[in-house]
Amino acid sequence: AQKVTQAQTEISVVEKEDVTLDCVYETRDTTYYLFWYKQPPSGELVFLIRRNSFDEQNEISGRYSWNFQKSTSSFNFTITASQVVDSAVYFCARNSGGGADGLTFGKGTHLIIQP
Amino acid sequence: NAGVTQTPKFQVLKTGQSMTLQCAQDMNHEYMSWYRQDPGMGLRLIHYSVGAGITDQGEVPNGYNVSRSTTEDFPLRLLSAAPSQTSVYFCASTSRGNEQFFGPGTRLTVL
What is the DSSP string of A15-63? Predict the structure, then answer.
Protein backbone atom coordinates (compact mmCIF):
# COMPACT_ATOMS: atom_id res chain seq x y z
CA ALA A 1 0.00 0.00 0.00
CA GLN A 2 1.13 3.50 -0.72
CA LYS A 3 1.37 5.12 2.67
CA VAL A 4 0.60 8.59 3.95
CA THR A 5 2.70 9.61 6.93
CA GLN A 6 1.84 12.27 9.45
CA ALA A 7 4.78 12.08 11.81
CA GLN A 8 3.38 14.57 14.33
CA THR A 9 0.95 12.73 16.56
CA GLU A 10 0.09 15.76 18.67
CA ILE A 11 1.00 19.43 18.55
CA SER A 12 0.20 21.98 21.23
CA VAL A 13 0.64 25.70 20.67
CA VAL A 14 -0.59 28.89 22.24
CA GLU A 15 -3.26 30.88 20.45
CA LYS A 16 -1.99 33.24 17.73
CA GLU A 17 1.09 31.14 17.02
CA ASP A 18 1.62 29.77 13.54
CA VAL A 19 1.68 25.99 13.20
CA THR A 20 2.60 23.63 10.37
CA LEU A 21 1.28 20.10 10.04
CA ASP A 22 3.47 17.77 8.00
CA CYS A 23 2.33 15.18 5.48
CA VAL A 24 4.54 12.89 3.41
CA TYR A 25 3.08 10.43 0.94
CA GLU A 26 4.23 7.50 -1.13
CA THR A 27 3.08 7.10 -4.70
CA ARG A 28 3.74 5.09 -7.83
CA ASP A 29 1.05 6.94 -9.72
CA THR A 30 1.57 9.74 -12.18
CA THR A 31 -1.82 11.20 -11.40
CA TYR A 32 -3.19 11.40 -7.90
CA TYR A 33 -5.03 13.68 -5.54
CA LEU A 34 -4.08 14.89 -2.09
CA PHE A 35 -6.52 16.00 0.58
CA TRP A 36 -6.67 17.55 4.02
CA TYR A 37 -9.58 17.01 6.39
CA LYS A 38 -10.37 18.47 9.79
CA GLN A 39 -12.14 16.40 12.42
CA PRO A 40 -13.39 18.54 15.31
CA PRO A 41 -14.41 16.99 18.64
CA SER A 42 -17.95 16.56 17.28
CA GLY A 43 -16.57 13.84 14.99
CA GLU A 44 -17.56 14.80 11.47
CA LEU A 45 -14.99 15.08 8.70
CA VAL A 46 -14.67 18.57 7.31
CA PHE A 47 -13.10 18.91 3.87
CA LEU A 48 -10.35 21.53 3.67
CA ILE A 49 -8.56 21.11 0.35
CA ARG A 50 -8.09 18.83 -2.67
CA ARG A 51 -4.96 19.13 -4.78
CA ASN A 52 -4.23 17.45 -8.13
CA SER A 53 -0.72 16.06 -8.57
CA PHE A 54 -0.20 18.23 -11.64
CA ASP A 55 -0.89 21.42 -9.74
CA GLU A 56 2.09 22.32 -7.56
CA GLN A 57 0.98 25.85 -6.85
CA ASN A 58 0.76 26.70 -3.19
CA GLU A 59 -2.67 27.69 -1.98
CA ILE A 60 -3.84 30.16 0.61
CA SER A 61 -7.33 30.35 2.04
CA GLY A 62 -7.67 32.87 4.81
CA ARG A 63 -5.44 31.72 7.68
CA TYR A 64 -4.82 28.37 6.00
CA SER A 65 -2.10 27.64 3.47
CA TRP A 66 -0.76 24.52 1.82
CA ASN A 67 2.69 23.78 0.44
CA PHE A 68 2.82 20.97 -2.14
CA GLN A 69 6.28 19.72 -3.18
CA LYS A 70 6.38 16.72 -5.49
CA SER A 71 10.18 16.55 -5.22
CA THR A 72 9.88 15.61 -1.54
CA SER A 73 6.40 14.00 -1.76
CA SER A 74 5.11 16.40 0.83
CA PHE A 75 1.88 18.33 1.24
CA ASN A 76 2.19 20.43 4.38
CA PHE A 77 -0.53 22.52 5.97
CA THR A 78 0.06 25.77 7.84
CA ILE A 79 -2.35 27.65 10.07
CA THR A 80 -1.39 31.26 10.62
CA ALA A 81 -2.41 33.07 13.81
CA SER A 82 -4.03 29.95 15.26
CA GLN A 83 -7.29 30.14 17.17
CA VAL A 84 -8.86 27.89 19.79
CA VAL A 85 -11.47 26.83 17.21
CA ASP A 86 -8.68 25.29 15.16
CA SER A 87 -8.27 22.60 17.81
CA ALA A 88 -9.06 19.31 16.08
CA VAL A 89 -7.53 16.23 14.52
CA TYR A 90 -6.24 16.89 11.01
CA PHE A 91 -5.90 14.16 8.42
CA CYS A 92 -3.91 14.11 5.23
CA ALA A 93 -5.02 11.64 2.55
CA ARG A 94 -4.36 10.63 -1.04
CA ASN A 95 -6.00 8.60 -3.76
CA SER A 96 -5.12 7.48 -7.24
CA GLY A 97 -6.00 9.64 -10.20
CA GLY A 98 -9.28 7.95 -10.95
CA GLY A 99 -10.49 8.17 -7.39
CA ALA A 100 -12.45 4.95 -7.62
CA ASP A 101 -10.52 2.95 -5.04
CA GLY A 102 -10.95 5.19 -2.03
CA LEU A 103 -8.55 7.21 0.05
CA THR A 104 -5.44 6.29 2.00
CA PHE A 105 -5.28 8.36 5.16
CA GLY A 106 -2.47 9.31 7.45
CA LYS A 107 -2.96 8.60 11.14
CA GLY A 108 -3.77 12.20 11.88
CA THR A 109 -2.28 15.03 13.91
CA HIS A 110 -4.09 16.16 17.03
CA LEU A 111 -3.74 19.93 17.19
CA ILE A 112 -4.35 21.65 20.51
CA ILE A 113 -4.59 25.42 20.59
CA GLN A 114 -4.30 26.76 24.11
CA PRO A 115 -5.86 30.12 24.95
CA ASN B 1 -29.84 17.28 -1.53
CA ALA B 2 -29.16 15.23 1.61
CA GLY B 3 -25.64 14.27 0.52
CA VAL B 4 -24.42 11.07 2.21
CA THR B 5 -26.61 9.68 4.96
CA GLN B 6 -25.77 6.91 7.41
CA THR B 7 -27.96 5.00 9.80
CA PRO B 8 -27.89 4.30 12.65
CA LYS B 9 -25.78 6.93 14.37
CA PHE B 10 -25.07 4.71 17.34
CA GLN B 11 -25.31 0.95 17.81
CA VAL B 12 -24.42 -1.51 20.55
CA LEU B 13 -24.13 -5.19 19.64
CA LYS B 14 -23.26 -8.35 21.48
CA THR B 15 -20.50 -10.59 20.18
CA GLY B 16 -21.82 -12.84 17.45
CA GLN B 17 -24.77 -10.67 16.46
CA SER B 18 -25.18 -9.50 12.89
CA MET B 19 -26.22 -6.13 11.61
CA THR B 20 -26.19 -3.86 8.59
CA LEU B 21 -24.93 -0.31 8.53
CA GLN B 22 -26.84 1.69 5.96
CA CYS B 23 -25.35 4.27 3.62
CA ALA B 24 -27.15 6.23 0.93
CA GLN B 25 -26.26 9.12 -1.36
CA ASP B 26 -28.47 11.21 -3.59
CA MET B 27 -25.77 12.74 -5.80
CA ASN B 28 -25.71 9.97 -8.42
CA HIS B 29 -22.06 9.19 -7.68
CA GLU B 30 -20.68 5.94 -9.03
CA TYR B 31 -17.90 5.57 -6.48
CA MET B 32 -18.66 4.75 -2.86
CA SER B 33 -16.54 3.45 -0.01
CA TRP B 34 -16.56 2.41 3.64
CA TYR B 35 -13.94 3.28 6.25
CA ARG B 36 -13.40 2.51 9.89
CA GLN B 37 -11.72 4.88 12.29
CA ASP B 38 -9.91 3.62 15.37
CA PRO B 39 -7.97 5.73 17.88
CA GLY B 40 -4.49 6.56 16.59
CA MET B 41 -5.06 4.71 13.32
CA GLY B 42 -6.69 7.27 11.07
CA LEU B 43 -9.34 6.01 8.67
CA ARG B 44 -8.81 2.69 6.94
CA LEU B 45 -10.61 1.51 3.84
CA ILE B 46 -12.84 -1.54 4.31
CA HIS B 47 -14.58 -1.98 0.94
CA TYR B 48 -15.30 0.18 -2.05
CA SER B 49 -17.54 0.13 -5.11
CA VAL B 50 -17.06 1.65 -8.55
CA GLY B 51 -20.67 1.19 -9.57
CA ALA B 52 -23.81 -0.86 -9.12
CA GLY B 53 -22.93 -4.55 -8.99
CA ILE B 54 -19.19 -3.96 -8.56
CA THR B 55 -17.38 -4.07 -5.22
CA ASP B 56 -13.83 -4.72 -4.09
CA GLN B 57 -11.84 -5.10 -0.91
CA GLY B 58 -9.87 -2.37 0.76
CA GLU B 59 -7.20 -2.55 3.41
CA VAL B 60 -9.24 -4.18 6.22
CA PRO B 61 -12.11 -6.21 4.67
CA ASN B 62 -12.19 -9.21 7.01
CA GLY B 63 -15.46 -9.63 8.88
CA TYR B 64 -17.40 -7.32 6.56
CA ASN B 65 -19.55 -7.86 3.49
CA VAL B 66 -20.90 -5.31 1.04
CA SER B 67 -23.18 -5.23 -1.97
CA ARG B 68 -24.21 -2.51 -4.38
CA SER B 69 -27.54 -3.25 -5.98
CA THR B 70 -28.30 0.41 -6.73
CA THR B 71 -26.23 3.51 -7.35
CA GLU B 72 -27.68 5.17 -4.25
CA ASP B 73 -27.13 2.51 -1.57
CA PHE B 74 -24.02 0.81 -0.25
CA PRO B 75 -24.77 -1.19 2.92
CA LEU B 76 -22.05 -2.70 5.09
CA ARG B 77 -22.84 -6.01 6.79
CA LEU B 78 -21.25 -7.47 9.88
CA LEU B 79 -22.10 -11.16 9.83
CA SER B 80 -20.84 -12.06 13.31
CA ALA B 81 -19.75 -9.02 15.28
CA ALA B 82 -16.55 -9.14 17.32
CA PRO B 83 -15.20 -6.68 19.91
CA SER B 84 -12.40 -5.84 17.45
CA GLN B 85 -15.05 -4.29 15.22
CA THR B 86 -15.84 -1.61 17.79
CA SER B 87 -15.12 1.52 15.82
CA VAL B 88 -16.57 4.55 14.08
CA TYR B 89 -17.64 3.79 10.54
CA PHE B 90 -17.73 6.37 7.76
CA CYS B 91 -19.29 5.99 4.35
CA ALA B 92 -18.21 8.20 1.46
CA SER B 93 -19.15 8.86 -2.13
CA THR B 94 -16.87 10.32 -4.76
CA SER B 95 -17.75 12.52 -7.68
CA ARG B 96 -16.12 12.23 -11.10
CA GLY B 97 -14.12 15.29 -10.18
CA ASN B 98 -12.66 13.46 -7.18
CA GLU B 99 -14.64 15.37 -4.59
CA GLN B 100 -15.13 13.16 -1.55
CA PHE B 101 -18.34 13.43 0.42
CA PHE B 102 -18.44 11.76 3.84
CA GLY B 103 -21.43 10.74 5.89
CA PRO B 104 -21.71 11.71 9.57
CA GLY B 105 -20.49 8.32 10.81
CA THR B 106 -21.87 5.39 12.82
CA ARG B 107 -20.41 4.68 16.24
CA LEU B 108 -20.50 0.92 16.84
CA THR B 109 -19.73 -0.84 20.11
CA VAL B 110 -19.46 -4.62 20.27
CA LEU B 111 -19.61 -6.09 23.77
Answer: TT--EEE--EE----SSEEEEEEEE-TT---EEEEEEETT----EEETT
